[in-house]
Amino acid sequence: MTEDNPTAGADDALAAAAVQPNAIRAVRVRRPGRWISAIILLLFVAMFAHMLVSNKNFGWDLVRQWLFWHTIIQAIWVTLELTVYAMLIGIVGGVLLAVMRLSSNPVSATAAWLYTWFFRGTPVLVQLLFWNNIAALVGQQVGFGVPFGPQFFHLDTNSTITAFTAAVLALGLNEAAYMSEIVRAGILSVDEGQSEAAASLGMRRGKIMSRIVLPQAMRVIIPPTGNEVISMLKTSSLASVIGVVELTDASESAIHLYFKAIPFYVVASLWYLFFTTVLSIGQYYIERYYARGSTRNLPPTPFQKLLRANLLFRTRRRRAEEIREALR
Amino acid sequence: MTADLIPDAPSNAVAVEIDKVYKSFGRLPVLRGVSMTVREGEVACLIGPSGSGKSTLLRCVNHLEKVDAGRISVHDRLVGYHHKNDRLYEMHDRDVAKQRRTIGMVFQRFNLFPHMTALENIIEAPVQVLGKSKAVAVAEAREHLEKVGLSDKAGSYPTQLSGGQQQRVAIARALAMQPALMLFDEPTSALDPELVGDVLAVMRQLAESGMTMIVVTHEMGFARDVGDTVAFMDGGIIVEHGDARQVIAEPQHARTQAFLAKVR
Fold this sequence. Notes:
The structure holds two protein chains of two kinds. Chain A is mainly alpha-helical.
């Protein structure tokens, strides 16, 4: 409470603006609910941690022993391959289907609608089993009535359709149906004025889509796609049902070998958690990348947030000290 | 720009011929028999209250909207249709796109491509549509940017530009296709008042260079000073059409008088 003299003249006003006024001193709103819920949460965390440590059935020494076992590591590669290939089919197919669905051509729009209707309407596990059995039938029945499937089987012989290929096809083609809805939402989110401006410059539909609309739709498409990748990593465990030796299947086999169930489930869960964490971090930065051009100021990264929070805390503490000083 | 252009105007070739055009959105009639001729080098301003059909008429000229009845020709070629053996044939997308190359359009909301810099916005169509080499397109784009006074903004993204700067980039983008006709759809309506002047100055300069322009505007000063002709539209028809200064200074029709009294 020092300078309160009213000033006339612009110079004085500027000088006054340069001096920070005294910080507001106010009693902060009490939030007992936060404290109570934090204590309850901590209690649960402590109980869970205690259970993890004290319960011998987890077999942590076995987990440590088997976490990097070569069979598990090989299986992880299969899981990652399944995820990557299935998502590639899913993303490429999804873009294609979304563009078809939104096209003015009624034939392609209907075809895309039918595809989505079928592949979203049946469980992916059933589709997986279906594909696996188609592989067995290929020799006799070429051109089985599934959209986009036949061409594949004209080329491939019975022996090359492994369980892995069947799993990639089933997961990928199913994913394409979901991705098409994500891409469609992204395309529809782009302002119509963009297409009009491009059309008025003499650009044709295909060019407008690939050069103007899709790049802008990416901002809307990327976050749910990241979600789909994470989801696919875990859904790929369904491939164990048709005998693909991926992470879940390898763990399951090991259980039959060693008669220890829980440690292997822990091993598998830890690996899934590890990769979903890595993917989440990746997704965060990709989102940040595509936010360029749409916002002037990018949101801070978690690391920057930490730094900022620390800074804020220090500023507050300094202010509080100043106030105490002034009151003395 | 000058009023004495009008006496000369009849000698100029017809650039745009709008003949008894009708257009409805659903049951709502928007254009109810609009006829209008714009000659080469003419700056034709469309004024009138919102909902009078000005923007729709403009959008019909480059076939962003299809007319229900009537004909529009640009440089003696029917817009959106082929006329053969007394029958109309709808144009294929590719021909519509070709026709639009020579008709530049500037929008109220700028509609710059936000994922591209100012320079990339301008070279996009020359490279992708006309097949120009990037080097040539960039060189030309820089000239256009200089013309609209934004040589230093080539690398800026639209969000980093003010509304007035964005609109001037949009004008440069349209000019890069070397159009023979420019359509302006309320180019200054979305701008802060202090930014309007820069855009109007660019448009005035363009008019003085002899560009044929159809301008939907609420800027009466611009219509009077830069416009050769002014058409006042209300309720989907052209109520009054004539020499720009005359229509704005001494409107003959009661509705025109009422409108101009309000906007002044």
